[in-house]
Amino acid sequence: MGTRLAKDGKNKNGVYFRSQSEPIVWKIGVYIRLSVADGNDVSLSVKNQDAIIKHFLEEEFREPYKLYKTYIDDGISGTTNDERTSFQEMIKDIEGGNVNCVVSKMLSRVFRNYSDQGYFLEEYFPRMGIRFITLEAPEVDTYRNPNVVHGYELPLNGIVNDRIAESASRSVRQTFQNMRREGKFQGGFPPYGYIRNPEDKYSFIIDEEAASIVRQIFQWYVVNRMALEKIRRTLNEKNIPNPTGYKVSKGYKYQNPGVQGSESFAWSARTVKTILQNRTYLGEMIQGKLTVISYKVHKQIKVPEDQWAAVPGRHEPIIEQEVFDKAQELLELNKSMKSCQSEPSLLSGFVYCADCKRKMHKRKNGKRVYYACSTYYKRNKNDCTSHFTKADIIEKAVLKAIQLQISLVDVDGIMEGIAELDEGEWRSEQKSRKKAAKAELKKLDKQLETLYLDYNKRLLTEKEYLSFRKKFRTQKAALEKNLAQMDADQKDETQKQEQRQWKEVFRKHQNIAALNRPLLEELVERIYVDEEKNLTIYFKFGDLFR
């Protein structure tokens, strides 16, 4: 039977120790994960994992415990932790003191990344005083057998799982890529104007209700020559929901992350333009516009248009080719006309609403020029207020703020202690040092992996293995510390260089008497106007001189 832990659950080294007091009551968090890659494998199902763990707790676990919570990530990849919401919730409960024992069916359910497995088992869990148990090989119980973490079986298992995850990810991505090349739809929701074909889930059929709006938009733009803004306004006046609102009205659990509230159902000129440019309405299946960096880094990046998967004739078109081509011609013409227009007005692109954070647009009333919230005037009057503010009031306030900022900065004093140096030479040397350090780190990681394999093959004794591992980890820690210092030095040098640059800017504008566009572009980031017409100005030099 286990015994009560110390107040923080561990000694100063993060290791459990026993006392002769009352038994420990384990506060258990059960973690279950089902990946999309698991498919229909019954042995890996959520129900199966839950049943195995419950049987263990009820029939085999002979120590006092309380089941705090079962955390389930269903249909989630195990290669990254940030996507696993239940895993993150479990970590928060650990840090809140609600969980001191984690139980899972097997290591690969919790960790499918070698480095993460090492971090949690060797650093995080011991530091937090967490007992970790898995029920299938390799079986782990860090309370009953803490040395299991430092043997060779777990690291080897982590390496194998890491490689399996990479291979599975590559296989899944190749499968999806092949399906895209065949014109098989891989998305969650078909484009506005279409629904999934009930007889072929990989293709579309026309949704006549939404398709009629698509045709109307092309009619207004190509035949009636209505501007994008007028089309937007007309659609909203007719209370026609935009694509997001339409999906919600049909019962789909769909949300556009870029907008909230009733605003998400209002049309914008950008949405109208997107529809006019969408080749899906010609019957083409276009996919693969975005991709992820790797199986571990799920950040999306844009794919060049010539690399998209475009398959013509996959579904019935809504728009004829001639009409679509004419729309593209008009869009390009309007773009060219805009580029030929006069220079932008003084404050254009700088003034934002302090409440909804959208741009404020210039409006005229006779000779008076003022700025007003674009959400109020162009989207939905219920989502914001007008924030009506005269342009000359904003201009005077900004000029005064710039003059004040420049007067507060000691142009000559800011250079004290900043040694002039050949920045190019310093950066080149720093880049070379960092490159060498990263290469050495990569080499050490490879040596650590090889070390586990050699130990497993009995090419090394346990003493030799532990000695080499300690040596490599010490070298790795020193390199990581050195890299962190180089990053800090580079950040410090970058700030000093920015100070030198701003010094010259301030000198140039010390006697400024009037605003001009180049001055604003050089110094000002954004200007926020609140409902009471109060201004908050953000300068590009930020906190450099505070």
From TrEMBL:
It holds the Pfam family Resolvase. GO terms for molecular function: DNA binding; DNA strand exchange activity. Gene3D superfamilies: Putative Large Serine Recombinase, Chain B, Domain 2, Resolvase, N-terminal catalytic domain. It comes from the Bacteria. Keywords: Coiled coil. Residues 27-183 form the Resolvase/invertase-type recombinase catalytic domain. The keyword Coiled coil applies. It comes from Hominibacterium faecale. This is Recombinase family protein. The lineage of its organism: Bacteria, Bacillati, Bacillota, Clostridia, Peptostreptococcales. InterPro entries: DNA_bind_recomb_sf, DNA_bind_recombinase_dom, Resolv_N, Resolvase-like_N_sf, SSR_resolvase, Zn_ribbon_recom_dom. Residues 427-496 form a coiled coil. Residues 191-337 form the Recombinase domain.
